[in-house]
Amino acid sequence: MGRPDQNNVDKIFLALVLWREARGASDECKTAIAYSVLNRVEHPKWWGTTVQDVLFKREQYSSMTHKGDVQLVTWPISKEESWLRCIYIASDVIDKVVMNPTTGADSYYDTSIDEPEWAKRSLFVKQIDNVRFYDTDKDSEDA
Length: 143
Description:
The chain has 143 residues and is mainly alpha-helical. The chain has a domain at 6-102: Arc Repressor Mutant, subunit A. It contains six helices and three strands. α1 (6-22) packs across α2 (27-42), α1 (6-22) crosses α5 (81-94) and α2 packs parallel to α5 (81-94). It is globular and about 50 Å long.
């Protein structure tokens, strides 16, 4: 038995994050969330240097690590349309066959929750659906 292809493993974990955090959002929003992960990988800081480092960094993508997030124990059904869409989007983003709708954004939050402390107006990139995207890495570049 050979080792699993790391690229495919990354796609499945990224799809799981998209499904858990944004399965009801538009494809554009899911794409932007997926790119937030890749933007972190491409500009490594404290959050890690690989897709899995970033996804499993404590409380960064709460559906993967935060014990209080109900999504942490929620799993997709294999042929469920929303799950399949998340797999396609994750694959397209990792393979970079779809454009990043939020260039530079490495963080986001849904407007259904209170605005986080890190969500500074100067770092705002774009809002898609109910999700606001930010380039928090820009903050360290300006310092």
